[in-house]
Structures are given as C-alpha cells and as structure tokens.
Amino acid sequence: MQFVYKQFTDNDFLNVSIKEISMDDILLAPFKSLLWIAKKLQDSAQEEFANEKEAITQQLSELYMMLDTEQITQEEFDAQEEKLLDRLEVLENEFSDDNDDE
User: Fold this and answer.
1) 63 and 75 in contact (C-beta within 8 Å)?
2) Distance (Å, whole) CA 43 – CA 94
3) Quick one: three-class SS letters along the chain?
4) How large is the angle between the packed helices 23-68 and 74-101, nearest 10 degrees?
5) Distance between CA 25 and CA 56 in Å, rounded?
6) Whole-number pLDDT of residue 94
7) Domain residue spans in the chain?
8) What's the pTM?
9) Contact 35, 19 (CB under 8 A)
10) Backbone angles phi, psi at 17, to 5 degrees
11) Using one digit for the tens of pLDDT, what is the confidence trace for 3-53?
C-alpha cells in the first residue's frame, strides 16, 4: 500500500514524498503508541523519584546544620532524621521494586 503526500502551492499540487507503509506498521501502531506512553510514564516516575530524593537529602543537610548551630537538640535531630531516612528507604524500596518488575 502506498500513500502519496501532496502539498498545495499556488494552485498546483506538488508531490512531496512517497512512503511505503506496510500492514505491519498499521497493525502495530496502537502497540507502539502504548509502549511510547509507558516509557514516558516511567521517565516521569523516575524524575519524580529523583526530585523527591533530592528534597529529602536537602532536608537532611539542613537538619545537620541546625544541629551544628544548636538550633535543635540531639533528640529533635534524631526524631526528624529517623523520619527522613525512613521516607528515603521507602522511596528506594519502591523504586527498586518497580525496576525488578521490568
């Protein structure tokens, strides 16, 4: 099957290009689209993971600075650090579980 693409210019039709499209291309187009969407979703999830991981790392840095400048006590530091490290561990486990499924 051939499709001829034409362009209208100054009342003349010009042949722009001829492209062979096979039945396989037509039949596989929906699946290729789904794979493309899945890849975009995966990329988005990885980016979100990286952003959240970076935010937690930044919060930990700020927490250490607050402890060093004695703005918080060791007990407050320990409690907040534990929450942040737990959240980071959950994120990494979720991410590694998602990668294991592939």
Assistant:
1) no
2) 15
3) CEEEEEEEECCEEEEEEEEECCHHHHHHHHHHHHHHHHHHHHHHHHHHHHHHHHHHHHHHHHHHHHHHCCCCCHHHHHHHHHHHHHHHHHHHHHHHHHHHHC
4) 170
5) 45
6) 82
7) 2-101
8) 0.57
9) no
10) -165, 155
11) 544 555 554 444 444 456 777 878 888 899 999 999 999 999 889 988 999
Q: 18 with 38: CB under 8 angstroms? A: no
Condensed to tens digits (0 to 9), the pLDDT of residues 54-82 reads: 999 999 999 999 999 999 999 999 999 99
pLDDT over 90 (residue 85): yes
- Residue in the structure block whose two tokens are 């699946």: 31
Q: Which two tokens stand for residue 89?
A: 């561990």
Residue 6, both tokens? 């034409």
Written as one letter, the residue type at 55 is A
